[in-house]
Amino acid sequence: MDSELQTDVIICGDNCEVMRKMPSESIDLVVTSPPYDDLRTYGGHSWDFYGVAWNLRRLLKPGGVIVWNVIDECKHGGESGTSMRQALHFQSLDLLLHDTMIYQKKGFSFPDSTRYHQTWEYMFVFSKGKPKTFNPICDRKNETAGKPLGGDYKRAKDGTSVLRPGSEDRGDRREFGQRFNVWMMGSGYGQSSQDDIAFNHPAIFPESLARDHILSWSNEGDIVLDPFSGSGTTAKMAKHNGRKYIGIEVNPEYVEISKQRLAQGVLF
Fold this sequence. Notes:
There is one protein chain. By secondary structure, the chain is of the alpha/beta class. It contains 6 helices and 14 strands. The protein has helices at 15-20, 49-59, 82-92, 207-217, 233-240, 252-262; strands at 9-12, 27-32, 60-70, 74-75, 78-79, 96-105, 120-127, 140-141, 153-155, 161-163, 176-177, 182-185, 223-226, 244-249. It has an 8-stranded mixed β-sheet with strand order 1-14-13-2-3-7-6-12. A hairpin with a 2-residue loop joins strand 4 (74-75) and strand 5. Helix 4 packs across helix 5 (233-240). The longest helix has 11 residues, at 49-59. It is globular, with a radius of gyration of 20 Å.
């Protein structure tokens, strides 16, 4: 049975058990990074992917979004393919694979002598129907800023040229355009010093990644959930940007890290 929803909390417990008690269609946005195969131990705790996926689908409001940041383990000479199987399962729950985004790192962690170095991770964006919110980040420098717009026509599927939508509104290119769906960012460790309490977590979620998804897919006052809260980065960025947050974390040591980070106050 659904219980009353508490927000602005970090809950210590099994995420499936906690989510089962939460009201259906109560969450606007999920931003999370689950354990990647066996690349990290996270205190030795296991988790139920199918239970998590089912609960997230139930909790999501119509038009709500799930950002699922994940990568595959390389084992016995090949990649596991877990990420793709997870994405297909979310689709089987009648969620849209709204976008397949890429988090490109500025460096690499696991050099390999038999393949090109891995420098990116998936950021699958699932939605319950059409996303109800999209606030595109426009920070891509336009090389043709100030020049007249061109390219009035595009190729249709049959090969003919058709007028681009909006091309009748002529003008000059803006200085900054909408960001592409490949985001280059430093890792969480690149943003933290050894004096930062978050450094005690084995896989710090980049604050800029969590922040930019929160800004993109939610509005102030919305409820943001992270069922793998870890060191509390998603909760921290939700709080700092005027959203309500719920973090669920099974490891009590990480819950304490989260609470200390959240107690530091907002950025502005």
